[in-house]
């Protein structure tokens, strides 16, 4: 009788097979959509690269092949490349320490009822359009900070960064860098916070149990664990700063030269801002040069983001590899 029940029980499980097959079909469809979406992104990226390369050929080949092209692309792009790197470096210099501090506060110091609202507000900054940041930089930040530029030029003019005369409007490279720093702050903060939250709790508790203060525990455990994550977050923020256009174009008072002066009204421009300001009035001989500068920016941004992803991926796979090796050794 029990055997009969067992046979019935086994037989009753057969109607579940179509559901299992349907589940496998759904998995296949989902996998196909995921793979297709990933391939679509790669195709779009390749199409953008092909367009930039094809349209910038006259600028790179020069006068021999294209007589109408009279501008040397390398001498043209060098001042703008300097301005792009200089502004992005200053933005990271201001943003990374603040972002790491906020991430540490949210992950290890703030009470739970306060940590979530603070993290939410920081993440909301990423949704603010760059034009809004540009308007805020022109109408609020620049006039408020201009007296500081005058003081720096009057008292610290022997330092090349603060050599006068100071800008009367506050539209300087330092203002643009501060705006960029606020724009990249959410990216660096969010990624750093997630890395700090993944610190093994047992290691933190062991450090505290050995008599370390909270700050000593952070220096001994949290920072070593999250170092590569913070570096990758900074590099992703750098990629965001390198490609920013409207905020820099609105705030900066630009020129086509290289200068490290932070308080003067004569500032180097960035590649993205120069394209946005020059392209509407460009003729057929200038457009290839502008597209060539866009190709240079595309390559730099792609390499920076790729390095950031590689660092992040390496940090995520190393613990898994070590764990897998330990399990194999135990076996």
From TrEMBL:
NCBIfam families named among the record's database cross-references: phosphate_pstC (TIGR02138)
* PROSITE patterns found in the cross-reference section: ABC_TM1 (PS50928)
The signal peptide, as residue positions, is: none
Domain of life from the UniProt record = Bacteria
Per the UniProt record, which residue ranges are transmembrane?
40-61, 81-106, 113-136, 173-192, 287-308
Q: Where is this protein localized, as stated in its record?
A: Cell membrane
What family does the database annotate?
Belongs to the binding-protein-dependent transport system permease family. CysTW subfamily.
Q: What is its main location?
A: membrane
Topology in the membrane? Multi-pass membrane protein
Q: Which residues form the ABC transmembrane type-1 domain?
A: 81-308
Species per Swiss-Prot/TrEMBL record: Brooklawnia cerclae
- Protein function: Part of the binding-protein-dependent transport system for phosphate; probably responsible for the translocation of the substrate across the membrane.
Its recorded name reads Phosphate transport system permease protein
